[in-house]
Amino acid sequence: MLSRVAERLYWMARYIERTENTARMVTAFNHLALDMPYQTRVSWAGLVSITGSDAIFEERYSEYNEANVVKFLLGDPANPGSILNALTSARENVRTTRDRVPTEVWETVNELHLYARFNLDAGEGKRGRYRYLSQIRSRCQQITGMLAGTMSHDHAYDLIKAGRNLERADMTSRLLDVGAVGLLSRGKDADEDASPFEGLLWINILKSLSAFQMYRQHVRRRVNATDVLRFLVQDPEFPRSISHALAEVEHSLANLPRNDIPLRMAMQVKRHAVDSQVDKLLEPKELHRFIDDLQKEMAELHGLVAETWFRLDKAA
């Protein structure tokens, strides 16, 4: 397999996962905005911060309000992480590797891209937003299922699986970092206490990852910060926990040739998540510091994957 083909398959999986995660995030935040009391302001800026696109947003918009943030995350051409841009990139990566993926996958990705583009106006409006995001989310899951069920689990699939799970771990970490502390704006009164809504905020984070039902089944305790963090960072069974996603990355890389350096890095970043002391993460600035270190390690892992398998053609 050519290194440029490997790179496109890896990025196709990341873009599909990014699309699904963004759709989940906007849907859950809409629910949070409806559930919060009228007098409590919910900050839309938190959604942009999760994606790390604050600078791009502020160049194009003067205010962090619902209309601007939703437009930016769903279809703004200047936002490389918007749903429409991610799907455009995923479609191009699949189109140029059609001989390596099942025909049904190419057709489904193409149909999803067309749906997202031609129904964007409905998605940006309040009335059609839920249906639009639900369609995108379910079609992304369909693509993931088709790849798992109809594609040979060879090196090409290992790269797809590695890309998908690394993107998933990254988004979970971003939701924990920004969502837990940045979604609720304190308003004009500096003494305003957000603690009555803490449970609602953590429930929103669980729902952003479709984790609420599994949390209630396996943790069986009232939603609280410590248990949610432990579940989403360290649970070995839940597919969207950081530890589980990184374990899947490690397993995928273990099947690839010349894997010594990236595999060691994958094991290191997974160990960082598994061995973290969750109780201490709730101390001031500790959660942000932990997530920041984890994201740097995941970025380094991505760089090693690219250096090992994607740059061979360019070096030749």
UniProtKB/TrEMBL annotation:
Pfam families: Alpha-E. The lineage of its organism: Bacteria, Pseudomonadati, Pseudomonadota, Gammaproteobacteria, Chromatiales. Residues 1-310 form the DUF403 domain. This is DUF403 domain-containing protein.
